[in-house]
Amino acid sequence: MLLPKRTKHRKQFKGRIHGKAKGGTDLNFGTYGLKSTEPERVTARQIESARRAMTRHMKRQGRVWIRIFPDVPVTAKPIEVRMGKGKGSIDRWVCKVKPGRVMFEIDGVTEAVAKEALRLAAMKLPVKCRVITREDW
Questions:
Q1: Would you call 87 exposed, middle or buried from its count of C-beta atoms within 10 A (0-12, 13-18, 19+)?
Q2: Tens of pLDDT along 31-63?
Q3: For residue 120, with 0-12 CB atoms within 10 Å meaning exposed, 13-18 middle and 19 or more buried, which class applies?
Q4: DSSP reduced 3-state for 76
Q5: Is the dihedral of CA 79, 75, 10, 125 positive or negative?
Q6: How many structural domains are present in the chain?
Q7: Do the domain assignments include residue 103?
Q8: How many CB atoms lie within 10 A of CB 95?
Q9: CATH code for the domain in which residue 107 is found
Q10: Backbone phi, then psi, for 111, in 5-degree steps?
Q11: 3-state secondary structure of 44
C-alpha cells in the first residue's frame, strides 16, 4: 500500500476539502482517465483495491498511472477507550480528492476494456467519478 517514506509532522489536523481541484484536472499520460466529481478522502486501501480491479480486468495489458497519493495521516483511538488522554495514533493514510481531479489513467488497451476497467475501479472508491477520454477536451 502507498504511504510516505517520511513526513515533516507525525499528526495533522482534520481540515476541510474546499473548492475545485487546482491541478491534475487533465489527462497527462494515458488516453482514458477517471475523474472525481465530488470531494472526499480516499484511503490507501481504496486506491490499491481500485488498481487491482483495473489490472485484473485488463489482464495485465496496457499501462495504469495512479495520479493521487495518500499523504495525509488519519489518527484513531482504539475501540473501548475512554475520552481524553491525547490524540490517537496513526490509523491510515488518505488523499484529499477535490472535484475535477484525475485519479487514474489508462493506455494501451481498447476503449471498451479501458472504460470497463475504470468503471470497476470507480466502484471501489468513495467518490462519484466519470470516465474521460482525450477526445473530451
A1: exposed
A2: 999 999 999 999 999 999 999 999 999 998 999
A3: middle
A4: strand
A5: positive
A6: 1
A7: yes
A8: 21
A9: 3.90.1170.10
A10: -60, -40
A11: helix
Nine-digit cell at 99?
472535484
Place of cell 484529499: 96
In a domain, 60, yes or no: yes
Angle at 126 between CA 96 and CA 54, to 5 degrees: 100
Report d(CA 36, CA 39) in Å as an integer.
Answer: 8
pLDDT tens per residue across span 64-83: 999 999 999 999 999 999 99
- Residue located via cell numbers 499523504: 71
Nearest to 129 by CA among 106, 100, 88, 105: 100
Instruction: State how far the Cα of 60 lies from the Cα of 113, in Å rounded to an integer.
Output: 12
In angstroms, the CA 43 to CA 134 distance is: 27
Name 72's bridge partners.
94
Domain extent at residue 131: 32-78+87-136
Which three cell numbers, joined as nine digits, stand for 27?
489527462
Contact assessment for residue 103 and residue 21, using Cβ atoms and an 8 Å cutoff: no
* Stated pTM of the model: 0.95
